[in-house]
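>> received
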Amino acid sequence: MLRQGRGFALSSSCQRRRTIPKLSPDRIDSLARDLPEWTSDGEALSRKLKFKDFNKAFAFMTDVAAKADEMDHHPEWSNVYNQVAIRLTTHDAGGLTEKDVVLARHIDAVAVKQNAEK
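>> returned
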């Protein structure tokens, strides 16, 4: 269902989207302990993964994409052959939120399932 806005139409999914609060500095500091495979610059979480081959890397990305789409929270990522670089941030909030933490944990689980190299 569309609702008219100022010169544009908003879908009902857009209307429902709420700004999620950014993580506190203390919570961001705790991420090093909670998500040891990830690095943070305070605004985003980053991780690089390596797989056996391109097919494994692509299977990993496909698995993560399904969850990201379900969450309506999409990573910034790139893939070169067997390597995947990921950056998570919540653009609507202007930094890190719990959505990033939830997706990072899912990514960690999929990386184990897909036998990512350490």
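>> The two ends are 46 Å apart (CA to CA).
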